[in-house]
Structure formats: structure tokens, C-alpha cells
């Protein structure tokens, strides 16, 4: 079923730290009126990178996660700086966080965090043909790099330290993409 998007009758906004909060006055196709709130991030978006050290092995990083106050295993990720493309940001973040650059970078899709109330989009980038190169980053300590076989994702998703939804989704998307489309690339 195709539905017409709700009509926006008004938007009010205010600052909410690193976000802009919007309150939408909406009218749905059936005449129902509701107010929704959504968060818009400031900046230019984000990237999450799946660096493949070989055809079967992705590189993860272990870093401190303040939101859950523990060390979390996940993928290289970060903000896109002003003037950067998603591919440039992915290459920079890969060098800063994992100590590798990539000769082959490809945006596979975008991933949203919570689309019912956030506009934030993260570009999922596959990085291949890696080489060692480190750039100074903004992390307070060097991150541990952990190789993980894509065939062992069933074990990874059961680990308590691997809980970030974008990392989980990105690894499954890349594994399936490589199996169906990118194995020969």
C-alpha cells in the first residue's frame, strides 16, 4: 500500500546540545492531527567502515564507550568533517582508529539509527586493499584492532561487548553483499 506523506502544518525548533530538536505539527491522510518530535544532528553526517584485511576477515576496534561505561567492540566510525566526502571521511577514520588506509572504498548504503525520531544517517563504507598508515585521531588512547572472520558473525553477535546496532547491521550487510555481488571485486 502506498500512502501519501503527512502534511506538515508547522515546525518549531530548539537547540538540544549537539542536536536540533524539531516539533512537527502533522496531519495524516485520514485527517488525524498529531505532534511528532525529531532530532537533527549538527554537521555533515557519519561513516561506519568495514575494513577487510583479506577476503574473509574484517577489522574491528575496541574502544571505550561512555554511554555504557565499558570497552565496546565495533567498527571504525566517525563524523564526516566539513568539505569531506563520505569516502574521504572513511579513509581518514580508518587511518586514525585502526592504522590502515584503503586503496578501494565503496559506499554500499546508508543506515539510520532510529528513523522514527532521528534524521541521522550513517554511510556504510566497505574498505578493501588495505595498507598500513596511521593518522593522529581524537581518541584518548590507541584502539585495539581485532580481526574477525565474517563466517563467525554468529559468535560475535552473542558477545556482550559487541552491542552497537550499526556495527551489527553493517557486518551482516557486507557479508551478504560480498557473497552475492562483491566477491570478485
TrEMBL record:
Keywords: Hydrolase. Pfam families: NUDIX. Gene3D superfamilies: Nucleoside Triphosphate Pyrophosphohydrolase. The keyword GTP-binding does not apply. GO terms for molecular function: bis(5'-nucleosyl)-tetraphosphatase (asymmetrical) activity. InterPro entries: NUDIX_hydrolase-like_dom_sf, NUDIX_hydrolase_CS, NUDIX_hydrolase_dom, Nudix_hydrolase_domain. One of its GO terms (biological process) is ATP biosynthetic process. It comes from the Bacteria. Its cofactor is Mg(2+). NCBIfam families: PRK11762.1. This is Adenosine nucleotide hydrolase NudE. It comes from Lysobacter dokdonensis DS-58. The lineage of its organism: Bacteria, Pseudomonadati, Pseudomonadota, Gammaproteobacteria, Lysobacterales.
Amino acid at each position: 500500500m502506498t500512502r501519501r506523506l503527512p502534511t506538515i502544518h508547522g515546525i518549531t525548533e530548539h537547540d538540544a546540545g549537539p542536536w536540533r530538536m524539531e516539533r512537527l505539527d502533522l496531519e495524516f491522510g485520514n485527517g488525524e492531527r498529531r505532534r511528532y518530535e525529531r532530532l537533527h544532528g549538527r554537521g555533515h553526517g557519519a561513516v561506519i567502515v568495514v575494513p577487510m584485511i583479506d577476503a574473509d576477515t574484517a577489522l574491528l576496534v575496541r574502544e571505550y564507550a561512555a554511554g555504557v561505561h565499558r570497552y565496546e567492540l565495533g567498527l571504525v566510525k566517525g563524523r564526516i568533517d566539513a568539505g569531506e566526502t563520505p569516502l574521504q571521511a572513511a579513509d581518514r577514520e580508518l587511518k586514525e582508529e585502526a592504522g590502515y588506509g584503503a586503496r578501494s572504498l565503496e559506499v554500499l548504503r546508508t543506515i539510520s539509527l532510529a528513523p522514527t525520531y532521528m534524521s541521522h544517517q550513517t554511510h556504510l563504507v566497505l574498505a578493501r586493499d588495505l595498507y598500513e598508515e596511521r593518522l593522529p585521531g581524537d581518541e584518548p588512547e590507541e584502539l585495539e584492532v581485532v580481526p574477525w572472520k565474517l563466517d563467525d558473525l554468529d559468535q560475535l553477535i552473542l558477545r556482550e561487548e559487541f552491542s552497537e546496532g550499526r556495527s551489527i547491521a553493517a557486518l551482516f550487510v557486507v557479508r551478504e553483499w560480498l557473497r552475492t555481488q562483491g566477491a570478485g571485486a
